[in-house]
From TrEMBL:
<keyword id="KW-0731">Sigma factor</keyword>
<dbReference type="Pfam" id="PF08281">
    <property type="entry name" value="Sigma70_r4_2"/>
</dbReference>
<dbReference type="InterPro" id="IPR013324">
    <property type="entry name" value="RNA_pol_sigma_r3/r4-like"/>
</dbReference>
<dbReference type="InterPro" id="IPR014284">
    <property type="entry name" value="RNA_pol_sigma-70_dom"/>
</dbReference>
<dbReference type="InterPro" id="IPR007627">
    <property type="entry name" value="RNA_pol_sigma70_r2"/>
</dbReference>
<comment type="similarity">
    <text>Belongs to the sigma-70 factor family. ECF subfamily.</text>
</comment>
<keyword id="KW-0805">Transcription regulation</keyword>
<keyword id="KW-0804">Transcription</keyword>
<dbReference type="InterPro" id="IPR013249">
    <property type="entry name" value="RNA_pol_sigma70_r4_t2"/>
</dbReference>
<protein>
    <submittedName>
        <fullName>Sigma-70 family RNA polymerase sigma factor</fullName>
    </submittedName>
</protein>
<dbReference type="InterPro" id="IPR036388">
    <property type="entry name" value="WH-like_DNA-bd_sf"/>
</dbReference>
<dbReference type="Pfam" id="PF04542">
    <property type="entry name" value="Sigma70_r2"/>
</dbReference>
<dbReference type="InterPro" id="IPR039425">
    <property type="entry name" value="RNA_pol_sigma-70-like"/>
</dbReference>
<dbReference type="InterPro" id="IPR013325">
    <property type="entry name" value="RNA_pol_sigma_r2"/>
</dbReference>
<feature type="domain" description="RNA polymerase sigma factor 70 region 4 type 2">
    <location>
        <begin position="132"/>
        <end position="183"/>
    </location>
</feature>
<feature type="domain" description="RNA polymerase sigma-70 region 2">
    <location>
        <begin position="37"/>
        <end position="104"/>
    </location>
</feature>
């Protein structure tokens, strides 16, 4: 976000924000927080609205960003970024989280009462598909089979598998993708 102000003015202003964040970090200084809040909250809300957030969502995200600043002021490192960059990065991440949450499918309604007995033909087809899938998984190369089992039967995320196996995340994703392609072709 280029500014028309001279760099010395921006440095002075950044120094002021850094000092206020330090007061929040060290002394839980509410006056310092109020000053930062008064300056950044409306700007964050505007930033989020320009990026497509509704006014309500932008307000909620701005409040969340400010609460995060209060709680995590100790994580701010002025050698890595300016105060404004740090704050707006938190805002951007909150916006991404909100979008992901909005896109997450709602769980289906849980049926109450006794369920209908499944059709015998459907039950037989499901049993046959399960047996075919078991054979297809067993036929995978060992490296792919292990990762598929960890991801789908062990319910581990790709990151958790990487941490557990020591393999790079990209390798894990590639092997799982190859394994799923093989399974898809086998199950046709």
């Amino acid at each position: 976000m280029p500014s028309d102000r001279p760099e010395s003015d921006r440095n002075t202003e950044n120094g002021r924000w850094i000092a206020l964040i330090a007061r929040i970090r060290d002394d839980a200084d509410e006056a310092a927080f109020a000053e930062i809040f008064g300056h950044f909250a409306p700007r964050i809300k505007g930033f989020l609205m320009k990026s497509g957030a509704s006014p309500t969502l932008a307000e909620e995200c701005a409040q969340d960003v400010m609460a995060t600043l209060w709680q995590k002021a100790h994580l701010f490192d002025p050698t890595r970024a300016s105060a404004a960059t740090w704050i707006f990065t938190i805002a951007r991440n909150r916006r991404i989280d909100a979008l992901r949450k909005a896109r997450r499918p709602e769980p289906e309604d849980i049926p109450w009462g006794p369920e209908e007995e499944p059709d015998q033909a459907d039950a037989l087809a499901l049993e046959q598909e399960s047996a075919q899938l078991t054979e297809a998984i067993a036929a995978l190369p060992p490296k792919q089979k292990t990762l598929i089992e960890a991801a789908y039967f062990g319910d581990l995320s790709h990151s958790e598998i990487a941490e557990k196996t020591g393999l790079p995340l990209g390798t894990i994703k590639s092997r799982i993708r190859l394994a799923l392609d093989r399974l898809r072709h086998t199950m046709k």
